[in-house]
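JOB MANIFEST
job_type = single_chain_structure
chain_count = 1
residues = 252
[input]
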Amino acid sequence: MVPHPAESNEGSVGGTTPAGLPLGPEIPKITPMRPRTVLVVGAHPDDEVLGPGGTLARHVGEGDDVHALILCEGVSLRYPDAKEDFVALEGRAAARVLGLASWTLHGFPDQRLDRLSLVEIAAPIERKVRELKPVIVYTHWRGDINRDHALVHEATLVAARCKERSIEKLYAYETPSETEWGIPYDFSPNTFVDVSRFLDTKLDAMRCYRSQSPPANHPRSLEHLRNRALYWGECMLMEAAEPFVLLREYWR
């Protein structure tokens, strides 16, 4: 059998193509994929579960190191008489269920980010990005009705600028009861993650947020979160999925 022209010079960069053209330089070898560092940025405790919780669990299942940065505390506005930040305790419990490597609460006042400059909001995100050097970053969608969410989205764009060389992909996630209540509703996902094997983990994590989980007939209810994942899955011929908008990608 006559060898293929491109196969006749094993290990060399010479030879010709089937059309008789000279072969170019040998293609560089790509380093096999290693565990990635992933950062999810949320405005409030529970956002990291409501939106991308199944995806974060999948990252962990695939060996990635996943970290959450929550910018605002969750008690001062709704529970002014609380003697401890029980929502933070719920958040740390949810992080253990998801298998997160870290869960950091910065502590800005809830629903008061509009009193801060964008530089102030972006600062803790920038510090976390430079500390962790994440490959993938998730943040809120800009159109959420919650003002804190929109500001965190904008601040993440500042913190994840192209000068942060570790970042390859930046995504926006939906937050049930905040994204679809925005006017106009303009969340148009272009990336869908199959979370069929991780949906139960997401729901178990949300169960840790007892103070944030309303009964049925609410976008944050466990029943709705399951149905929502099934809906997005059906849209993309999967069993269950979570939707994202790919905001920026670098292939360096």
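[summary]
Residues 1-13 have pLDDT under 50 and may be disordered.
Residues 33-249 form a domain with the Rossmann fold fold (CATH 3.40.50.10320).
exit_status = 0
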